[in-house]
């Protein structure tokens, strides 16, 4: 057996393994079955390619897409490795080449779709040809709990048995506990060696925004990425076509991709995206699995993804080269309603629907997260992390307030209307708008009519999203989207519990942009700036005295803003990012004193 490090250097040209690769490679070389969960861009393919070259025999690779097989085969052959694929796109000459190489024992890696293996006599033929390793890529497709379940993948356990119970390595980037258990049960006869190598992709900037004007928000995001390659995911074929046209008219090289297009056109657009620079692929989720383009600089979602797993998988197509990449996800109540309706109307079992509801709830909570998004995302996968400094909440900051009264107003409106109405009717009642429906039901006479007139409709929509994310209310989809209270909601309504809500998402778009622009304009304060060092020292002292984490006093962003703007009085200090009235009263004089000491 050849030393895997030598192969890594001599064949692939890499000086060292990436984190997690070597122990998986050595487990495979030791003959163990393996289930590996590794983040996108971590080099999963090498975990079965390298062991193949270190010993004799043929490796059969299950891959979900013809385009991915083609690209992998081409890459391997460029390394001088005999590789091929079994798929319907092969011409007669390629099929002959593959068959000869397998028969003569020259073929090292053979790629095939799950359909090709499950529905033909190929496994028996390959067993006779000497397959000694089965590698299953995108293994989450095996599981009914996976976000991308494919029935043909579920038959791969039988394919493995037809191959003679061959050694197997299954790989995926996204698999929670339920999905991992299902993969093990369906693919392996015994317990495989399990490797879980972190879900964190620190090079990805994470950002989410509530929808205000979807197209304007997308164009603002894309303007920062002109002439770069990226993907924009849409929720329907129609929206895909329209957005691709709009981007093209705006000067972007934008191409559509969805399942309703002719196969030849889809293949042509995908090839252009993979081979050329600066193309924006506007697509449904039909595009992306197995796309291995390293320099995708951004991924945007024009609508809420299906689940956290799907979100993670889709944003993971950016920045596979390890360089910085940008993400943006837009979401709204209509998205949440659509996703829930899709779950309820599916033919899934009651148990699977229950799991899918929980997954969607987790995604909604991520959208309205009150802390670092990466912390929330990684916590879902069972990992802990410090605040990342590379998400919108870390960069732009989060401001919260005691939202108990606002929540009670919403909850009261829901209860007083008999838990029978949807979002817009409830908001009309709160702001005191006498719509035709409000008059018809006599709801202008309710005590809650007009109690929320101090806030805009957009603010109330955001507050409703937040109490939904916090589990205070449920959305009854099959009954026209009516809202009902949960036990937790009842407790808040009765004053038995309080609720913290985010205030920053309630700002008017113009105010948010102004505050963000002000911060970006002044953010270039070096870490060793004397004033910033002194402000941090004061924050540390106060945090110790009060027994709270430092960020509870002020976030780093607030201190940077102070050091940059150097406010001279309490009024100016109140304009600093993250300074509300309570903090102004409590800390304003102390921090102003430090700022004055460094004046001039």
UniProtKB/TrEMBL annotation:
Q: Does the keyword Hydrolase apply?
A: yes
Q: Could you mention a single GO BP entry for this protein? A: DNA repair
Reactions catalysed, as given in the entry: Couples ATP hydrolysis with the unwinding of duplex DNA by translocating in the 3'-5' direction
Question: Transmembrane region positions?
Answer: none
Q: Which residues form the Helicase ATP-binding domain?
A: 25-193
Cross-referenced Pfam families, in alphabetical order? DEAD, Helicase_C, HRDC, RecQ_Zn_bind, RQC
- Looking at the UniProt record for this protein, which Gene Ontology cellular component terms does it annotate, in alphabetical order? bacterial nucleoid; cytoplasm; replisome
Q: Which residues form the Helicase C-terminal domain?
A: 214-361
Q: Which residues form a coiled coil?
A: none
Q: Start and end of every HRDC domain?
A: 525-600
NCBIfam families found in the cross-reference section: recQ, recQ_fam
Name of protein: DNA helicase RecQ
Recall the taxonomic lineage recorded for the source organism: Bacteria, Pseudomonadati, Pseudomonadota, Alphaproteobacteria, Hyphomicrobiales
Gene coding for it? recQ
């Amino acid at each position: 057996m050849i030393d895997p490090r030598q192969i890594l250097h001599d064949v692939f040209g890499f000086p060292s393994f990436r984190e997690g690769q070597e122990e998986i490679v050595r487990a495979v070389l030791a003959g163990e079955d393996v289930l590996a969960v590794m983040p996108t861009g971590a080099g999963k393919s090498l975990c079965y390619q390298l062991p193949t070259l270190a010993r004799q025999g043929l490796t059969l690779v299950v891959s979900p897409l013809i385009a991915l097989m083609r690209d992998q085969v081409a890459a391997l052959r460029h390394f001088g490795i005999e590789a091929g694929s079994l798929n319907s796109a092969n011409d007669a000459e390629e099929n002959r080449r593959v068959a000869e190489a397998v028969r003569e024992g020259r073929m090292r890696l053979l790629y095939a779709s799950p359909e090709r293996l499950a529905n033909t006599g190929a496994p028996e033929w390959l067993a006779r040809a000497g397959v000694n390793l089965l590698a299953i890529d995108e293994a989450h497709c095996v599981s009914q709990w996976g976000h991308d379940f494919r029935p043909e993948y579920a038959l791969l356990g039988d394919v493995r048995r037809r191959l003679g119970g061959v050694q197997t390595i299954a790989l995926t980037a996204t698999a929670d506990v339920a999905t991992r258990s299902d993969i093990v049960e369906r693919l392996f006869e015994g317990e495989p060696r399990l490797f879980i190598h972190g879900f964190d992709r620190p090079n990805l900037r994470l950002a989410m925004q509530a929808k205000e004007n979807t197209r304007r928000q997308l164009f603002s995001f894309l303007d920062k990425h002109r002439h770069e390659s990226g993907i924009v995911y849409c929720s329907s074929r129609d929206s895909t076509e329209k957005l691709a046209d709009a981007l093209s008219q705006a000067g972007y090289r934008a191409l559509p991709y969805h399942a309703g297009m002719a196969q030849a056109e889809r293949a042509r657009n995908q090839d252009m995206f993979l081979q050329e620079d600066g193309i924006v692929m506007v697509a449904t989720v039909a595009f992306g699995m197995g796309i291995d383009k390293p320099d995708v600089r951004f991924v945007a979602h024009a609508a809420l993804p299906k689940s956290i797993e799907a979100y993670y998988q889709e944003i993971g197509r950016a920045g596979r080269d390890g360089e910085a990449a940008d993400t943006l996800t837009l979401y709204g109540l209509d998205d949440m309603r659509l996703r829930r309706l899709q779950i309820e109307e599916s033919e899934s079992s009651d148990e699977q629907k229950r799991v899918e509801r929980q997954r969607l709830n987790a995604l909604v909570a991520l959208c309205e997260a009150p802390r670092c998004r990466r912390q929330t995302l990684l916590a879902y996968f069972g990992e802990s992390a410090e605040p990342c400094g590379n998400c919108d909440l870390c960069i732009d900051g989060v401001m919260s307030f005691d939202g108990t009264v606002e929540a009670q107003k919403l909850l009261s409106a829901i209860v007083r209307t008999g838990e029978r109405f949807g979002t817009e009717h409830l908001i009309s009642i709160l702001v005191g708008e006498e719509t035709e429906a409000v008059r018809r039901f006599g709801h202008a006479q309710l005590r809650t009519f007009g109690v929320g007139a101090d806030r805009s409709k957009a603010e109330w929509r955001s507050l409703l999203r937040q109490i939904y994310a916090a589990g205070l209310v449920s959305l009854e989809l099959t009954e026209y989207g009516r809202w009902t209270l949960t036990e937790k909601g009842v407790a808040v309504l009765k004053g038995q519990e309080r609720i913290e809500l985010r205030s920053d998402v309630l700002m008017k778009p113009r105010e948010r942009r102004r505050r963000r622009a002000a911060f970006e304009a002044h953010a270039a304060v070096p870490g060793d700036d004397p004033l910033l060092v002194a402000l941090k020292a004061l924050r540390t002292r106060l945090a110790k005295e009060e027994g709270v984490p430092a960020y509870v006093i002020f976030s780093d962003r607030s201190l940077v803003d102070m050091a940059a703007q150097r406010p001279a009085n309490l009024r100016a200090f109140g304009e600093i990012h993250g300074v509300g009235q309570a903090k102004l009263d409590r800390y304003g004089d102390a921090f102003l004193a430090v700022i004055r000491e460094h004046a001039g």
